[in-house]
């Protein structure tokens, strides 16, 4: 009987380990996380709740502040990630292209600075000035917003469209299909999605796999 109890305990422990599946790579490689906390979040068609987060200028920013916006390009990004750095100029271009058409970029840094000091608030201010960000660069203090969206990478994009007082998720995923070289991009996911919304059409590619660094969470 004693041996049977030991065997059952071992089996239960083994099942517990199987329930947690994660591939842990460094920040230079794509990472897929399959834990329940990582895969929860919005799906296309869901209503995204508003937030109030601190910008690099010290002001608090909410989606409701943008009265004339038709929607938003919400991008979870950060300072340190090589993928995020590769996309910075393209994120600026997206904001410059679509802000005046009603779809401004709202960038949010979801990382815990205690885990990744390069993503601290002071470092965010310096990076925004260095790159000349034309959009809000907000800090997700307490890491409360990114789990609601279901973001797992930097960068990870959520295109929202205003429908009355609601912000409805219309696209989730990557910015385009080549993080390394903008000259080799053949699929402009975010750009095509917003252009389709401006024409009141239906987005063909509503969800893609976000490629980037894992969001840094304090253990």
TrEMBL record:
<dbReference type="InterPro" id="IPR000866">
    <property type="entry name" value="AhpC/TSA"/>
</dbReference>
<feature type="domain" description="Thioredoxin">
    <location>
        <begin position="42"/>
        <end position="199"/>
    </location>
</feature>
<protein>
    <submittedName>
        <fullName>Redoxin</fullName>
    </submittedName>
</protein>
<dbReference type="InterPro" id="IPR047262">
    <property type="entry name" value="PRX-like1"/>
</dbReference>
<feature type="signal peptide">
    <location>
        <begin position="1"/>
        <end position="25"/>
    </location>
</feature>
<dbReference type="InterPro" id="IPR036249">
    <property type="entry name" value="Thioredoxin-like_sf"/>
</dbReference>
<keyword id="KW-0732">Signal</keyword>
<dbReference type="InterPro" id="IPR013766">
    <property type="entry name" value="Thioredoxin_domain"/>
</dbReference>
<dbReference type="GO" id="GO:0016491">
    <property type="term" value="F:oxidoreductase activity"/>
</dbReference>
<dbReference type="Pfam" id="PF00578">
    <property type="entry name" value="AhpC-TSA"/>
</dbReference>
<dbReference type="GO" id="GO:0016209">
    <property type="term" value="F:antioxidant activity"/>
</dbReference>
